[in-house]
């Protein structure tokens, strides 16, 4: 098969973002296969087209995914997320806003084309370089298969080489997880442990091990997951960043040393920025306030002393936003929060107050995490996106060890995360169930808005109970003439119950795939 490589603006943009000053590609509009594999510079340029997979849109996709769960609420009633979660629209083989089948197989084809070209035309490349770029693309292929497996229960089609045009049957889930693990094992073996500062954001050994730990957690291969964490920790490269709030306020241009970052995507103004703040910031910032945290999440932020917050406690209810743990203040904008030189007001009747209909908060809260308080032009954000950070790895380790019955090891990993959050009293558990409940709460809070919650609930088997027949909660605050505040818990779903049938735990194969491939059939629950 003869391949023609066209280098797009996207690839050039990605190249600039990595500041690879040593790359001097031969400039022309079209490269045939001989030129594409003629030297390291051109191969590197071709490789860069894969990097937008890990975070080009900053956190937008992750925040939107959390709105399908119980962490966030879209403020516009007719937003497609609200239509789905409230049952006005449904997932079908022909319509699924969370479908990624076509996306996945497009990228798998790109990965396999690159790997085939490397194998057949890249034999003259230096061995170390050859192995490194192969490892990077194996990482990306494993990542794409993992994203497919999350949605389709790992019942997908495996292509370990170029598609010969012959329809293939669905692979068994164990085959898919084996394939992902093998790609990541080989990637980890061939990738460097560290990269130069100018290459920050390139795939490393730690990234491959971290992704394997994440994938094996979904596969319920607990020992494989914890073993990957152990191998990552043996590199002695990673640790928790001391300040949770400051962790999410780092610009690539500032060059801050950050051992918590295992794999990141950096932005550099003025040429490579994002518009996240523009869509999600409060209206007085000039933002569209498309989404708001729910009280379902906010109540899970404990008091600073480690005790639970509850509206049934008169002291808590009188001043609900005082004395909470530091991650609350780093993640949530609430009534009375200092923000961009003003005090945020979410009381009914204020310009940023609680209302139904869109344009302002429908829950009484705004996000704070991921916003750049120093930003004046909301369309030019340049904070760092973390594809994976060490806190997630510790929570993976905690869960994998808990599932293996190793409570002490699981608790130690969990409490490391909590100590960074400012807690001085460690959590304890006497059985696996207790520990898993603690870990699930911690993931909800520590990883809030990072796109894990919806998928976590599905893989835990909890989505039908948490997301079906339930309601998101908000807080409606009214202010009396004398300044007294009244807090009222309200149904942020406006009296409608959420809908999540059991079959949503595995999405249907898209109808387009069924029509072109006679060797597969729809899952039983979707027939």
Task: Describe this protein's structure.
The protein is mainly α and 527 residues long. The chain has a domain at 56-94 and 274-381 and 461-504. The protein has 21 helices and twelve strands. A two-stranded antiparallel ribbon has the order 1-2. A hairpin with a 5-residue loop joins strand 11 and strand 12 (485-491). The longest helix has 26 residues, at 127-152. It is globular. Residues 1-22 form the signal peptide. This is RagB/SusD family nutrient uptake outer membrane protein. Residues 271-526 form the RagB/SusD domain. It comes from Sphingobacterium athyrii. It holds the Pfam family SusD_RagB.
Topology:
Elements: E1 4-5, H1 9-17, E2 31-32, H2 33-36, H3 40-47, H4 60-66, E3 72-74, H5 80-85, H6 101-121, H7 127-152, H8 173-190, H9 205-218, H10 222-233, H11 244-247, E4 261-265, H12 276-280, E5 291-293, H13 295-298, H14 314-318, H15 326-331, E6 332-333, E7 338-339, E8 342-343, E9 366-367, E10 385-389, H16 390-403, H17 407-420, H18 432-446, H19 453-459, H20 463-467, E11 473-479, E12 485-491, H21 511-516
Antiparallel strand pairs: 1-2, 3-5, 4-10, 6-9, 7-8, 11-12
Helix pairs in contact: 3-7, 6-7, 7-8, 7-9, 8-9, 9-10, 9-16, 10-16, 16-17, 16-18, 17-18
């Amino acid at each position: 098969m003869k391949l023609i490589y066209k280098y797009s603006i996207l690839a050039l943009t990605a190249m600039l973002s990595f500041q690879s000053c040593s790359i001097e590609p031969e400039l022309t509009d079209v490269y045939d296969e001989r030129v594409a594999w003629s030297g390291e510079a051109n191969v590197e340029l071709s490789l860069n087209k894969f990097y937008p997979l890990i975070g080009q849109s900053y956190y937008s996709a992750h925040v939107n995914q959390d709105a399908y769960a119980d962490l966030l609420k879209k403020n516009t009633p007719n937003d497609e997320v609200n239509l789905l979660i409230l049952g006005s629209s449904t997932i079908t083989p022909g319509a699924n806003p969370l479908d990624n089948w076509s996306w996945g197989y497009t990228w798998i084809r790109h990965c396999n084309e690159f790997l085939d070209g490397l194998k057949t035309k890249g034999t003259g490349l230096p061995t170390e370089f050859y192995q490194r770029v192969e490892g990077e693309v194996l990482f990306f292929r494993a990542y794409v298969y993992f994203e497919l497996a999350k949605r389709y229960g790992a019942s997908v089609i495996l292509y370990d080489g170029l598609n010969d045009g012959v329809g293939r049957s669905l692979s068994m889930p164990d085959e898919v997880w084996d394939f992902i693990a093998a790609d990541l094992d080989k990637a980890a073996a061939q990738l460097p442990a560290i990269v130069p500062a100018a290459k920050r954001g390139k795939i490393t050994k730690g990234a491959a091990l971290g992704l394997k730990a994440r994938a094996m957690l979904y596969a319920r291969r607990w020992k494989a997951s914890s073993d990957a964490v152990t191998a990552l920790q043996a590199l002695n490269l990673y640790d928790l960043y001391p300040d949770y709030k400051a962790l999410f306020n780092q610009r690539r241009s500032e060059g801050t040393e950050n051992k918590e970052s295992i794999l990141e995507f950096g932005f550099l103004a003025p040429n490579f920025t994002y518009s996240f703040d523009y869509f999600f910031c409060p209206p007085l910032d000039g933002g569209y306030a498309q989404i708001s945290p729910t009280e379902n999440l906010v109540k899970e932020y404990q008091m600073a002393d480690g005790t639970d917050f509850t509206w049934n406690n008169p002291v808590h209810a009188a001043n609900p936003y005082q004395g909470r743990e530091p991650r609350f203040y780093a993640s949530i904008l609430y009534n009375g929060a200092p923000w961009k030189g003003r005090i945020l007001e979410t009381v009914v009747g204020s310009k940023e107050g609680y209302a139904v209909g869109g344009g302002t908060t429908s829950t009484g809260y705004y996000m704070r995490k991921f916003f750049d308080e120093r930003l004046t032009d909301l369309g030019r954000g340049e904070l760092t996106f973390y594809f994976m950070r060490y806190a997630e790895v510790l929570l993976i380790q905690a869960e994998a060890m808990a599932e293996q019955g190793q409570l002490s090891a699981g608790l130690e990993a969990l409490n490391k995360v909590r100590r960074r959050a400012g807690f001085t009293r460690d959590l304890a558990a006497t059985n696996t169930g207790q520990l898993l409940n603690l870990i699930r709460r911690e993931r909800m809070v520590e990883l809030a808005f990072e796109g894990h919650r919806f998928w976590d609930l599905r893989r835990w088997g909890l989505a039908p109970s948490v997301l079906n027949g339930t309601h998101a909660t908000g807080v409606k605050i009214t202010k009396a003439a004398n300044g007294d505040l009244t807090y009222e818990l309200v149904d942020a779903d406006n009296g409608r119950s959420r809908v999540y049938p059991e079959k949503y735990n595995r999405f249907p194969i898209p109808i387009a795939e069924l029509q072109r491939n006679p060797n597969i059939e729809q899952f039983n629950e979707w027939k």
